[in-house]
Amino acid sequence: MLDIQFAKSKMENEEGMNHLWIQVHPEDPLQTSEIQIQLPEGMYRSKNLSGLVENDQGHIVVDAPYQDVIIEIFTQDALECGELTIVVSLLTAETTVH
Predict the structure, then answer these.
(1) What 8-state DSSP symbol labels residue 45?
(2) Structural domain of residue 80, as residue ranges?
(3) How confident is the model over 56-83, as pLDDT tens digits?
């Protein structure tokens, strides 16, 4: 299971920045999992600030239970105002949770 929160409830549409806090609560704490983050066009992210490994697919490898992951989300150019969706998935050998 994932708990996801933003540091700020809204993000500026031009040169905006926010932090995404992801808490991982695995059903099987012995199983390695990966976090996949899909951003809308015009939004970008830094490498995770938690020091976890990111693989060739850009997934964050979670190799210990109950780890917190912090990601910086930002824009470089002006985006159209409105609601955008960020998809965060927890991938394991058996399941995918969105």
Answers:
(1) E
(2) 2-97
(3) 999 999 988 778 999 999 988 888 878 8
